[in-house]
Write a structure and sequence with these properties.
By secondary structure, the protein is of the alpha/beta class. It has 3 domains: 203 residues, Rossmann fold (3-Layer(aba) Sandwich), CATH 3.40.50; 59 residues, SH3 type barrels (Roll); 85 residues, Translation factors (Elongation Factor Tu (Ef-tu), domain 3, Beta Barrel). The protein has 9 helices and 17 strands. A hairpin with a 5-residue loop joins β14 and β15. α1 packs across α7 and α3 packs antiparallel against α4. The longest helix has 20 residues. The relative contact order is 0.12. Belongs to the MnmA/TRMU family.
Length: 390
């Protein structure tokens, strides 16, 4: 039985236009199908985001050749208008170039966050407005609900294994007022069953991978193509100052990484810090990765009240999409700067990753998040490392 959807919009569905962001995958296709079945005036829009030559037939790609074809076929099956918009240049400027620059700066960026903050929830949302739509619906596994004091809040979905709130923390309150996420109350198996009931060709299509524009997952090769000479070798230095070897480019490493260091020192060592300016990897034992306090930039606030008034707020913090949210305290340091105290500590928190905070009581509501800044350097280790490199 096909689930019913309620977008919490005024007016009859037949008089309400909704633009659906259709990636060519099963999730967004089902959203389009559910809304069409509910009687909404549905318009499907697919964004061509990058040169799809290398990814036309690659499993796990999205927003490329085969996916655009699949989205078009779904539109035909559902009997809804479908348009493809060329956003390649915008995607390059807003997502790919900053992704490469972040890696070259010694960070570990999340391009999906940047894509949602720019191309999808700014540019595409404006396109939806231009088309006279009352809402933009997507296939993300998150939920949004009206808040008692007005506006809408962002919440975790029913299917915890598919939770995508980590990647959508940057959604603004203004954007949330126009965004709808019909899959927030459905588990993934149910979504595929709906796709079969609707006769959609994507019912059993594999899910897309995270970094859609990197063929074969080799992001370092892609960055070298964009920035020739980017993967320059440099020293690998222990936190005690000993030079242990040479790496083949800082962009190939992230904080917390152990594999690929090619060191024979008789003990397991991890990347503790990346000094991109000096092309240096600083390594140490696992305990050197422990972190209790992190600083955030580009903070987006979705909680109640003014962010500047937040001081020692009890929250749950998530420092990677694959990790659980842990007890923490949040303090505003400025309009878009924050400090998060991780009460039990975390290991291997990498600069460039996101830290997303949830309400402390239930851990369900997203209160916001920001990008992890590089940890302050340890002077003694830096001085010893500099001496070792001379």
């Amino acid at each position: 039985m096909t689930p019913t959807v309620d977008l919490d919009l005024p007016g009859a569905p037949a008089d309400t236009r909704v633009v659906v962001a259709m990636s060519g995958g099963v999730d967004s296709s089902v959203v389009a199908g559910l809304l069409a079945r509910a009687g909404y005036d549905v318009v499907g829009v697919t964004l061509q985001l990058y040169d799809h030559g290398a990814a036309t037939a690659r499993k796990g790609a999205c927003c490329a050749g085969q996916d655009i074809h699949d989205a078009r076929r779904v539109g035909e099956t559902l009997g809804i208008p479908h348009y493809v918009l060329d956003y390649e240049q915008r995607f390059r400027e807003a997502v790919i170039d900053p992704f490469a620059a972040s890696y070259l700066a010694g960070e570990t960026p999340i391009p999906c966050v940047a894509c949602n903050q720019t191309v999808k929830f700014v540019d595409l949302l404006q396109t939806a407005r231009d088309l006279g739509a009352a809402a933009l619906a997507t296939g993300h596994y998150v939920a949004s609900r009206a808040l008692p004091g007005g506006g809408r809040g962002l919440y975790r979905p029913v299917d915890a294994d598919r939770d995508q709130t980590y990647f959508l923390y940057g959604t603004t309150p203004d954007q949330l007022s126009l965004l709808r996420f019909p899959l927030g109350g459905l588990p993934k198996p149910a979504v595929r069953e709906v796709a079969r009931e609707l006769g959609l060709i994507v019912a059993d299509k594999p899910d897309s991978q995270d970094i859609c524009f990197v063929p074969n997952g080799r992001y370092a090769d892609m960055i070298e193509k964009l920035k020739p000479g980017a993967a320059e070798p440099g020293p690998v230095v222990h936190i005690d100052g000993r030079r242990l070897g040479t790496h083949d480019g800082v962009l190939r490493y992230t904080v917390g990484q152990r594999r690929g260091l090619n060191l024979s020192v008789g003990e397991p060592l991890y990347v503790v810090r990346i000094d991109a300016g000096a092309k240096t990897l600083v390594v140490g034992p696992r305990e050197a990765l422990e972190t209790r306090t992190i600083r955030l930039r580009n903070m987006n606030w979705l909680g109640d009240g003014a962010f500047e008034d937040v001081a020692g707020l009890a929250v749950r913090a998530r420092v990677r999409s694959t990790r659980p949210a842990v007890p923490a305290r949040l303090t505003a340091l400025g309009p878009a700067e924050a400090e998060v105290e991780l009460l039990d500590g975390e290991s291997g928190v990498a600069p460039g990753q996101a830290c997303v905070v949830y309400d402390e009581a239930t851990g369900e509501r997203v209160l916001g998040g920001g990008i992890v800044r590089p940890q302050p350097r340890v002077p003694a280790a830096n001085e010893a490392a500099s001496e070792a490199m001379r």
